[in-house]
Write a structure and sequence with these properties.
The structure is a single chain. With about 475 residues, the chain is mainly alpha-helical. The radius of gyration is 24 Å and the shape is globular. The two termini are about 25 Å apart. It contains 19 helices and no strands. Helix 8 packs antiparallel against helix 9, helix 8 runs parallel beside helix 10 and helix 16 packs antiparallel against helix 17.
Length: about 475
């Protein structure tokens, strides 16, 4: 009797164990994605104030989190498999080999370049594998909640001297970008102003989404809107203000052409922002910030030659400088990672642009016209694919993926991946954009006993014997 029953029990127990193991690994990967988010927000604070003696190692503090996420995803059968990842892996290995040859064995520089360009790209698809639209909305809640203290910190940094601890760090080794009138461009909890620029783009996304989804309390949306205005004014950054403007314009154009009701709501939200600005415009710090920002705009306009000069500079940064580089770079480039600031420190002892400041030009000079051009094309195709998904989803259901794409689409193609904060936001925002297309959540297996689950039972749990409570 026992011998006859054993063959039927063993496979069932194996299937049940497999389901529990998959559930456990899924939970761990989700925890690691959240760890990635929190480290991205507070990495700069750790480097500046908490662990200043470990400032350089903390540049790669998220890498162990990424590798652990990959390990648990692989062990749980969750690691994504698609053409983008296969092509990216092949391109990464070729670039790594070419970099080792070009740098004549400067392995640390090449490995850093590899991790900047290729190591974290699978996280985009892994985030979408373990997150769905509900998780994206939870991230949005925390982004909105953090926007208020972030804006207040930036205001305090704006008022503080450039060499104060709150600006330059506990060991005074963070020199912030200068603005005008003796002020700096405040970095918040990030290392430099690029962090708030990317963070408040996400804040703008979730403020817009809250006007149509009603997922967040009204007081939170209003507080975040106020934080957005304060941050924009005190930042002294045209990139931050321009990024927010692009997101609002993107949303408005989509609403006008596809969903007029949404356009009406977003126009209403914009009017609320104007009203808030009218209320706070006479606050002394806002007046001082506006004066500084206006002077900075005038100063930059004088240097660049007005709007035409500014547009020419933008074009050269995005594309123009890269084109002639295609014909003058070595076939395998100067070496992966050489153009990053970390690569420059390892090679020359100080942070500088050894190759080029613009991203496309740097990549071509690092990896050569073939491998570098292939990587740029890879990023463009990935961005276009993600944008197509976001547009189709927005037309049929929820505009959240499209709003997220407006904050990450251009960064996915042009952001400086050698800069850790920019890399982190590209990965996180793109992953959230892809995850937001999963409007109908896929039911997740649970590690709890099967009888306690009412909404979902995995196929393995259905066939498994009911465990005793």
């Amino acid at each position: 009797m026992t011998a006859a029953i054993a063959p039927t029990i063993a496979p069932t127990m194996t299937a049940g164990a497999r389901a529990r193991r998959s559930s456990k690994n899924l939970h761990r990967v989700r925890q690691l994605v959240w760890a990635y988010f929190w480290l991205l927000i507070f990495e700069g604070a750790l480097r500046k104030w908490v662990l200043p003696f470990a400032s350089n190692p903390l540049l790669i503090v998220r890498d162990p989190v990424v590798l652990l996420a990959y390990f648990y995803a692989w062990r749980g059968g969750l690691f994504p498999r698609n053409t983008f990842l296969l092509f990216g892996a092949a391109l990464g290995l070729l670039s790594l080999a070419a970099g080792l040859i070009a740098t004549e064995g400067a392995a640390f520089v090449t490995v850093y370049g590899f991790r900047a360009h290729f190591l974290q790209l699978p996280m985009i698809f892994l985030i979408a594998k373990v997150f769905d639209a509900r998780d994206v909305q939870r991230v949005g809640y925390w982004v909105l909640l953090l926007s208020v203290p972030m804006a207040l910190l930036m205001a305090l940094q704006f008022l503080s001297p450039p060499q104060s601890v709150i600006n330059s760090g506990a060991e005074e080794n963070f020199e912030q970008l200068q603005s005008v009138m003796g002020r700096i461009r405040p970095a918040g909890t990030f290392s430099y102003i690029s962090g708030p620029t990317l963070f408040f783009a996400l804040v703008a996304v979730f403020i817009l989404h809250s006007q149509i989804s009603k997922r967040y309390p009204l007081f939170l949306t209003l507080a975040a809107s106020l934080g957005l205005l304060v941050a924009a004014v005190v930042s002294g950054s045209r990139g931050l203000v321009g990024g927010i403007g692009v997101i609002f314009l993107f949303a408005l154009l989509f609403g006008v052409f596809f969903k007029p009701r949404l356009a009406a709501r977003w126009i209403g939200g914009f009017l609320v922002l104007l009203l808030l600005f009218y209320v706070i415009r006479n606050v002394p710090i806002i007046q001082l910030s506006l004066s500084a920002f206006t002077e900075r705009l005038n100063s930059a306009s004088g240097v660049e030659g007005g709007a035409e000069g500014f547009l020419s500079r933008v074009w050269d940064t995005l594309v123009g400088n890269a084109y002639p580089t295609l014909f003058h770079s070595p076939h395998i480039g100067h070496g992966l990672g050489v153009g990053t600031n970390v690569g420059a420190i390892l090679l020359s002892g100080k942070a500088q642009f050894l190759l080029a400041e613009s991203e496309w030009q740097r990549i071509i000079m690092e990896s050569g016209p073939f491998l570098g051009g292939s990587f740029l094309l890879y990023r463009v195709v990935l961005s276009l694919w993600l944008g197509r998904l976001a547009i189709l989803h927005a037309i049929r259901q929820d505009p959240l993926p499209l709003l997220l794409f407006s904050s990450c689409g251009l960064n996915l193609t042009h952001a400086n991946l050698g800069q850790p904060t920019a890399l982190g936001f590209v990965i996180l925002s793109s992953g959230l954009c892809l995850a937001a297309t999963r409007t109908v959540p896929q039911k997740r297996p649970s590690a709890r006993p099967a009888p306690r689950l009412q909404s979902y039972r995995s196929p393995a749990a259905v066939n498994a014997p009911v465990p005793a409570s």
